[in-house]
Design goal:
Elements (H helix, E strand, L loop, with lengths): L3 E7 L3 E13 L6 E5 L5 E5 L4 E6 L2 E8 L5 E10 L10 E4 L7 E7 L5 E11 L7 E6 L5 E8 L4 E5 L6 E9 L5 E10 L1 E4 L6 E5 L6 E7 L3 E13 L5 E7 L4 E6 L5 E8 L2 E9 L4 E7 L1
Parallel strand pairs: 16-18
Antiparallel strand pairs: 1-6, 2-5, 2-7, 3-4, 3-6, 8-15, 9-14, 10-13, 10-15, 11-12, 11-14, 17-24, 18-23, 19-22, 19-24, 20-21, 20-23
């Protein structure tokens, strides 16, 4: 029945993971729990046999209190670690959940107004699955959801984050769909490609990483009919689908287009003068190139 207490100090703003594993109890088959408190006694997290996230901790000394629901003796490994940070340069990071059903956590830094693509590729599970491999979700620096989650029903999946609202460390959670599965994948986070378009001057757009989106801007001096061509679209692998959206300065959608054959066309019968953004995203190409003109 003897409890245990550990302490650690946070300087402010850190994101940690804490978990218990290699648990052996006598009598066998029992459980222990660990509760994390701040110096005022407020509960910050409860750990059982899975990893618990401790996000945005304020500067303080924290206490980890390990207790037993019934009297027993036990040995275990208690691990506290910082959440690893991934670069937003489109370079893949290998991911494997350490135990069945357990999530993996990452952070990436962003400035308000930036846009990103987040993708998982080469997904596999053990035991093997034919569908519903896993999911991923993104939280803003204050803990609210930037994306409520994407269910990966194929061996790749992706999401985009357009014009993120806050600056700071965004938290990314990757987990298998089934609690009995271990998920292996490659995680790719990439900043959106950017550029400024000029009427009558074709712009060459290259998307060099898996699931990378693009955000292209232009200013229209007069109102009237409008046509923008995106062609030829050359994705790898061939057949990857694309979408294009046209937003005005109020972030209102004014036109959209889907990939067809090897091109897309954005049109408006009477597009007012003003500033516009073309947002381009793909369903999982490893690379793509196209010419954008209007």
């Amino acid at each position: 029945g003897r409890p245990a207490q550990f302490t650690f100090t946070a300087s402010g703003g850190e994101h940690y993971l804490i978990d218990i594993d290699q648990l052996i109890t006598a009598p066998a088959g029992n459980a222990v729990s660990a509760t994390v408190y701040d110096s005022s006694g407020n509960t910050k997290g409860i750990v059982t046999r899975t990893t618990t996230e401790l996000a945005n901790l304020a500067p303080d000394t924290y206490f980890v209190w390990i207790s037993q629901p019934t009297p027993l003796t036990a040995s275990m490994r208690l691990t506290l670690q910082t959440i690893p940070q991934v670069a937003t340069n489109g370079v893949g990071v290998p991911v494997q959940n350490p135990t069945p059903g357990q999530a993996s956590y990452f952070t990436f830094n962003a400035q308000a107004g930036e846009s990103f693509g987040v993708a998982m590729t080469d997904i596999s599970t053990n035991p093997p699955s034919e569908t519903n491999f896993g999911s991923m979700s993104v939280l803003e620096p204050d803990g609210t959801y930037a994306s409520y989650g994407t269910l990966c029903q194929q061996t790749h999946c992706w999401m985009t984050l357009r014009n993120v609202a806050k600056s700071g460390a965004y938290r990314l959670r990757v987990e298998p769909y089934l609690p009995t599965s271990i998920l292996s994948t490659t995680l790719v986070v990439s900043k959106a490609a950017t550029g400024v378009l000029t009427a009558g001057q074709p712009f060459t757009l290259n998307l060099s990483s898996y699931g990378q989106p693009a955000s292209l801007s232009f200013t229209r001096g007069t109102a009237g009919a409008f046509t923008m061509n995106l062609t030829p679209i050359s994705p790898t692998p061939a057949g990857t689908s694309f979408r294009a959206y046209l937003y005005n300065s109020a972030n209102e959608l004014v036109a959209s287009a889907w990939w067809s054959a090897s091109s897309m066309v954005l049109t408006s019968s009477n597009l007012p003068a003003g500033a516009y953004t073309v947002w381009i995203e793909c369903s999982g190409a490893t690379a793509a190139s196209m010419t954008v003109s209007y």
